[in-house]
C-alpha cells in the first residue's frame, strides 16, 4: 500500500516537473523572440522620443513614425506596436502587471513584470 502511494506521488511529481520545465522553456523562448524582434525594429530606425511608457521612432522602410508602447488591457498591460497617427496595433507582449521604458545613452531598456511577479529586462541598442 505504501509502495503504491509512493509511486503515485513520484509520478505526479515528475509530471509537475515536466510541465514546469516546458512552461519555463516556452516563456524564455517567447521572451528571446520578442527581444530579437524589438532589437531588429530599433537597430536601423531613428528614435524620436522615449518616455516611461513609450518609444516613438521613425521607420525608414515604412517612411512613418511608429510607437512601441505600454497599453492598458483590463487590469493588466500589453506592450504593443502601433503607428503614431493611424491607429491599429500589433500586440508584442500581453498579460503584464508592469511595464516601464527608459533610455540610457544608446540603450532602450524595457522592464516587465508578468502575472507571476517575475521581472525581466530587455536591453535594446540603437546607434542611429
TrEMBL record:
Q: One Pfam annotation, family name?
A: ComGF
Name-wise, this protein is Competence protein ComGF
Species name: Companilactobacillus crustorum
Amino acid at each position: 500500500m505504501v509502495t503504491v502511494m509512493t509511486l503515485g506521488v513520484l509520478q505526479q511529481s515528475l509530471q509537475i516537473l515536466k510541465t514546469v520545465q516546458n512552461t519555463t522553456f516556452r516563456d524564455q523562448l517567447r521572451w528571446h523572440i520578442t527581444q530579437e524582434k524589438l532589437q531588429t525594429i530599433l537597430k536601423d530606425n531613428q528614435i524620436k522620443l522615449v518616455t516611461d511608457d513609450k518609444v516613438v521612432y521613425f521607420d525608414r522602410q515604412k517612411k512613418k513614425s511608429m510607437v512601441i508602447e505600454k497599453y492598458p488591457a483590463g487590469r493588466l498591460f500589453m506592450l504593443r506596436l502601433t503607428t503614431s497617427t493611424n491607429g491599429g496595433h500589433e500586440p508584442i507582449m500581453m498579460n503584464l502587471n508592469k511595464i516601464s521604458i527608459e533610455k540610457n545613452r544608446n540603450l532602450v531598456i524595457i522592464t516587465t513584470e508578468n502575472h507571476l511577479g517575475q521581472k525581466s529586462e530587455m536591453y535594446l541598442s540603437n546607434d542611429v
